[in-house]
Structures are given as C-alpha cells and as structure tokens.
Amino acid sequence: MSRVYFVRFFARFLLKKVFIYVNFCYNLFSRKALNGFIAKIITNKNKGESKQAERKKKK
User: In the 8-state DSSP scheme, what is residue 5?
Assistant: First the structure.
C-alpha cells in the first residue's frame, strides 16, 4: 500500500516539475520567437519604405 502511494506521489512530483520546466521553456521560446517576429516585421517595413524612397529618387 505504501509503495503504491509513494509511486503515485513521485509521479505527481515529477509531473509538476516537468510541467513547470516545459512551461518555462515554452514562455522563454515564445517570447524570443515573438520578439524576433516583430523585429523582422519592423525591418521588412523599413526596407520596403527605403526601397520606395530609392525608387522615387531614381524617378
């Protein structure tokens, strides 16, 4: 009886640790990915604007 209880407790403990770790990694990764994505969008917009300005200068 005590062994089953111990295994159950250990499994629950491990699950919590794994869940916290996965959650932390996911938050870290999604934040980095989000920042990279936003930065890409901003640089693409800037590139597009500079290209348009160059075309206007050529004309």
Answer: H
Over the stretch 45-55, which tens digit does the pLDDT of each residue have?
777 766 677 77
Report the chain's terminal Cα–Cα distance, integer Å. 86
Cα gap 11→18, rounded to integer Å: 10
Record the pTM: 0.43
> Domains of the chain: which residue ranges?
1-59
**Torsion angles phi and psi, residue 19, rounded to 5:** -60, -45
How many residues are recorded in the chain?
Answer: 59
Which ranges constitute the DSSP H helices of 1-59? 2-58
